[in-house]
Amino acid sequence: MRPIWLLESNVDGLNTAEIQAEVRRQGMSCHIVKHLPSYAIPKDIAGAESLRMDECVIFRGSLNLMRHIHASRRWTPGGWCAVQNLSCSTYYAHFGPFLLNRDYAFLPMAEVIRLADDLFLRYAKEGKLFVRPDTVYKRFPGTLTDRTSFMSRFHGSEFDPTQLVLVARAKKSSYEWRLIVCNSRVIAGSQYRSPAGRDELPHCPDEVISFAADVLQNVRWRPAPIFVLDVCDSEDGLRVQELNSFGCSGHYLADVATVVEAASNLAAITF
After folding, report:
1. Structural domains counted in the chain
2. What pTM was estimated for this model as a whole?
C-alpha cells in the first residue's frame, strides 16, 4: 500500500510545490488541502473529500489541522504527531544529558508570574532567562526575556494559568540544524540558522550527524518512528535544542527525495 500525501496550503515553512512534485515523481498521489471547520465531514477538509476514513495517509501541515484529523479521521499513520510526546516535560526526561536547556524548571503559568523575582535570581544570566510553553501548541514563542518585558510574555486572550511553562538558564547558540530521524537514523538534514540569523544551507557537518547518532544510541525512547531533531552549536558545544513532529515541521533544505521516500516506506509498513 502506497500512502496518499496531503499537504496543507499556505503553511509557513512548508514548500508544498517541491514536496508535491517529488511525491508524484515517486508514483504516489498528492492532494493540496485546506481546513474548512464550518463544514461537515467530508467537506471539512477541502481537497480530501474522496478519501475514505481509514486510508493510508501522510499529512504535512499545521498543528490545528493535524489535531482535527486525529479527532475526525482514522487515517494511518496520519502525520506522526504524538502531541504528549512532544511536550518538553516528556522528552526532557529522556534527552536530559544532551539538552541545551539542562538547568530548568516547569511551573504553571500563574506560578511563573507569582515567583518571577525568585526565578530571575535562580536562572537569569546577564539579566535574561529563557521561557517557553511546555506543550507543542505554543501560545507564545520560546524566547529570552528580561525582567521588564517578562510579564507581557504571558498575558493575552489565551492566557491559561494552569499551562506548564519551561523556565531555563539562558544559553548562547550560533548555528542550528534540523535533522529528520527515521527508524532511529538521521536520513536528512539542513542548516537553518547561523550567527547572522536565518541562514538555510543543505546538509549538515559530519560532527553534527555524529553527535545526533550518539544521542540516538544513548536514548532509546522515541516520540514517533519519524520525527524532527533540532541541534545547535552552543556555548556548551553541540546540544539538542528541541524535538518536533514530522507532520507539522518544515524540512528547510533537507533532501526532499530522501525524506519523501523514507516517510512513504515507513507509512506503507505501518499501514
Report:
1. 3
2. 0.94
